[in-house]
User: Fold these one by one.
Assistant:
Number 1:
Amino acid sequence: MSDQDDGPGADKKLPEGLQYLSKVWEPVWFLRIACVLLFADIALANLTGGGLLRWEFDLPALMNHAGYLAASLLIFCLIMSLGLPCLALCIQWMLTWLPISLSKPSLTTDEARSLGLVTLTELRDHAYAEQNQFVLNIVKLYEARFKAELAGDRELASLLFGFTALALADLCWDVGGTAKTLLATIWPSGQLGMAIFAGSLLVIGILLRECWFPPSRNWVRFPLLARALADKEAARRREVYGETDVPAYRRQLSTQFRDRSNS
């Protein structure tokens, strides 16, 4: 009997060469490859007068321009690692000064309590107060997951912004008065091209908004603690305002604000 378990529960992995095929369905890998190809297209257009579509592989000819290729690689690394991320941060910072909020509205405390949600800080304080290691482990798992999701959003936004910038450069690149880059060659002209261009910018803008201004990930589902906190908040409202009903409590605050404004 072989040592290898061939049953249905066995952990069967693809051969090492075929494992990279799974990366095809990951947007991050698509954007990485697309950025490399777009920059290579621009570099070849400057070198040979034609982009990737007109490039004929000639190793001796490429070796004659080894210095140009090395400089192009250095410029690509500089642009993708420093130039475009800094530009993206500047744009993101300027967008925060807009009079409207680009992030999705977060849940109010009352809405969160009705769904059995508490903040990560409240759950951590509860774990320390009760000396509950199990709950503390849950907090650590959520913290790790939230950090991983935030890092994934930042990476996706950086690559998407870089892809957009390189695509625009490739589309508008002019070599000797004749555009011969990849996108300039295959992009349709007229109203169809303008419609595709506008639609692409709209979709990319929505995706960047989701990555740059994500909804709050601070809520954790913990119904028992949520019910206890809701009861404590209701007791405080009853003591201060004499109201237990949340809508009535809000109406009372609105009335007080309106009376102060009139006075």
Note: The first helix runs from residue 27 to 48.
Number 2:
Amino acid sequence: MEGQLDTSASLTEKLKKALQNPHGSFVFWYQSPELLLNSGEGGIVLEIISGSRLIRLEKSAESTVDYYYSTPGSGTRRARINLSEIPYADRVFIALTWSPQQTSLSMGPEAEGGRLVHANGEESRIRFRLDVEGNVCRIGDQGVFVAQTYIYRGEKMILEPTAIEYWRESLQAIQVLKTAKSSEGFMFEALQSNLIVGILTTGFEVYCKRRFIELEGEGISPNLPALIKMLPKSRVGYAHNIRSSAEFVAASGINFQNWDISKEAFNKGYGIVFGQLPVSGEYCRKFRDTSYSDTASFTCRHYSRSYPQKHPVSFQ
């Protein structure tokens, strides 16, 4: 897509810095004889990458202008404007906004009778992710559902599901498991309950571990001095090698399966207090009670409990 936009190094760096903020906007004039043509081939108008955040503005082959905003934490949202709504002009005003809750695209042609057209972002079937090498990966499409995406280059894994994707897929697995039936009575119910608790506990561990690292990629710097103080004595020697959240996780061997340890790590590293999250305290207490300690035996601990004969575990 040919067009005129200031893409100088200084502006690009300013945009990358602005994109590190979870709330922001970018407004500009774009000149192109092709963008507002209600026909023709599509193409990328703008793409900015900052850490693990991405914004992309493109014209599709369906004569729409699509604005994508993607982060590991919020996924990919798309705001779409149909070109049939906009009078033709070779110069157009464009405004992009983003936040964890909402994105929007606004366009207004420099033409007589032109008006500003607005579209809010919605969860997109097409997802954009950045692999560990910084490449942009386009996943899925309209009418296509893709889950558990892993990409390897040779023997090296360069892309895996995000924290929230893994957690949601864990909950989907639990819903499937809850539909299972057996004539074995209490033994089956106890087994079903243990499997559900196991999926929840593993899901919690993977979510916390991946999200702990993702936050830094989204522009939130961890408090490394405070985290280094959490290192066990046997691993203090690794402190001088820790320059990122991922290196801290690798060096510390931290057990994110443990509720109290996870709570401490997020609090010291990012100032996040579990008790202040927008989740009911009762739900947190129930979930905490299902997580087991470093030394407890999962099987023995949970089989020793007295489970009711009906509806052994209920999750909302």
Note: The mean pLDDT is 85.
